[in-house]
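[Meeting: bench + compute handoff]

Bench side (C.D.) handed over the final construct sequence. Compute side (W.E.) agreed to return the predicted structure before the next meeting so the bench team could plan truncations. Sequence as handed over:
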Amino acid sequence: MLYQSHSDQQLLGMLKAGDREALNEIYKRYQGILYSHAYRRFPDREEVRDVVQDIFVSLWHNREQLQVTTSLAAYLYTSVRNRLLNIIRHQKVHDTFARSLQQFIEEGENITDEKLREKELIRLVEQEVAALPAQMRLIFEMSRHLNMSHQQIAEELSISPLTVRTQVRNALRILKVRLGARVFSIFF
């Protein structure tokens, strides 16, 4: 039987009936132009070869449910286009995920390192504040942690505002020496 002489519609009918030679003829007619069509839109030879091959495999496996409402050529072109769009969509999702993961890895390490350094600096500052003389530490903490003014601290502790100012200034001077100017400038 000469399949080359049959129309696309006749070949589709024979394909639905399970005729492998009809599939072979459809493949011979459309494989080259489908490949060229796909390669112009997606220049990856292996991927395009796989897409075209999958179209014909799918055509065979789904032959009994096949509903071609347009021409066979339009159906095949649409199938190729849809597969390529799915691949592109999948690649975009994959690329976005990969970039996101890479960014998380890069920033995650920085965030973790920064958090550790920040905690260590806070611990160091708290340790140095705790090492201040008791009265000086109390005045300093009221000033810095409770945000009280010198006048409010003086009234609370029944001391002179000048004493409060001197104690805060001395505490800052001591902390600057013990912590170093760089760390000191971050916290105070």
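W.E. noted at the follow-up: Helices lie at 8-16, 20-41, 45-61, 72-130, 134-144, 150-157, 161-179, 181-187. C.D. will use this when planning the next construct.
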